[in-house]
Amino acid sequence: MHITLTYKGPVQGNARKQSDVWRLRKSFHKQLHKLSATDEFGYVEKYASQETENLHPNIGIEIANSRYVPFVTSKMKTRCSLYIRVLRGVRQYNPVLGNVDLDNRVKTLIDALRAPQQVGETRESDGTVRYVLLEDDSLIGGITVKSDHYLDEDDEGVVLAIITANIHLAHATWANMHLGYPTAPF
After folding, report:
1. CB-based contacts of 76: which residues, under 8 Å, 6+ apart?
2. Residue 104 belongs to a domain
3. Considering all CA atoms of the chain, what is the largest pairwise distance in Å, rounded to the nearest integer?
4. For the chain, is the Cβ count within 10 Å smaller at the N or the C terminus?
């Protein structure tokens, strides 16, 4: 199973703030919410309820009066590999990408894909359900990152990020058998 998420906008590297991560997290939430209504990812809704049956793990995470629902969780024994394509805006084309601070931008993207770990990482505590890709970034089994020019954008601070998450089973259980058989990442 795989999920492709996109984001177009500013992604800070060294000077990032929690508000930067939150902006990306909200963008990914909208896309993941749409996926949660599909047959393929309906398990997310089913197991996110606080009133799940004993056979099914409760994958929802309560933080600061909000509920975060991850697609990849340790309780479901799932993992993922990420393929991240980062296209950055350029004022003038140069075949050498130069100083793009790619590693910190990728860290910002990954932080936005996971559920907050503590209250200080949240922005709103209104009891809303928010969808995230990962329970924790430790569930990422591999990352491939490619960077290139985004020729349709002049602002070097703006990126077009295309993130493909390949979800696989780390261990088959009764709760996750419908997701498929364990496979190697990529």
Report:
1. 43, 47, 57, 59, 173, 175, 176, 179
2. yes
3. 59
4. C
The verdict on residue 125 lying in a domain is yes
Q: What's the total number of domains in the chain? A: 1
Domain assignment of residue 75, given as a range: 2-179
Crossing angle (nearest 10°) for helices 102-113 and 18-36:
50
Whether residue 186 is contained in a domain is answered as no
Query: Are 55 and 183 a contacting pair, CB within 8 Å?
Result: no
Judged by DSSP in three states, 112 sits in: helix
> pLDDT digits over 38-69, tens only?
888 877 777 766 565 555 566 777 777 788 88
Instruction: Examine residue 78 and state whether it is found in any structural domain, yes or no.
Output: yes
On whether the CB atoms of residues 75 and 97 are closer than 8 A, the answer is no
3-class SS of residue 80: strand
Each residue's pLDDT tens digit, 17-30 = 788 888 999 999 99
Residue 174 backbone phi and psi in degrees, to 5: -60, -35
pTM of the model: 0.84
Instruction: Pinpoint the alpha helices (H) of 13-151.
Output: 18-36, 42-48, 102-113
